[in-house]
Amino acid sequence: MNSIIIRALVICVVLIQAQALQAQLDSTLKLVPNDANAVAIVRVEKIYGSEMAATEKWIEQSRVKYSSSPLYFPTSTKSVVIAAEIDLGHGSALWEAAYLTMKSEIDMNFVCKLCKGVNHKIAGFESVDTPDGGTMLKLSKNTLATKFPANRQQISRWARSVKNEQTGKLSDYLLKVSEFAQKKSDAEIIMGLDLVDAIGPKQLREKLRQKTWLTDTDTLVKVLSSIQGVTFEVKLRSDATGVMRIDFAEDTSAIKRDAKNLVVAALQDNGLYIRDFDKWETEIQGKQIVFSGRLSSTGLRRVSSIIEPPQASVPTKETTKSDSGEVAGRKARATKEHWDAVQALLKDIRKYQPQTRNQLAFYYERYARKIDGLPILNVDEEELDYASAVANVLRQVALGRRDVVARTAATRKQYRGYDYTYTYGSHGWVRGGRSAQSASEAAAANIIAQGATSKAKLMEGLDQLSASVRRSLTKKFSDYQIEF
Question: How much is the pLDDT for 357?
Answer without folding.
Answer: 64
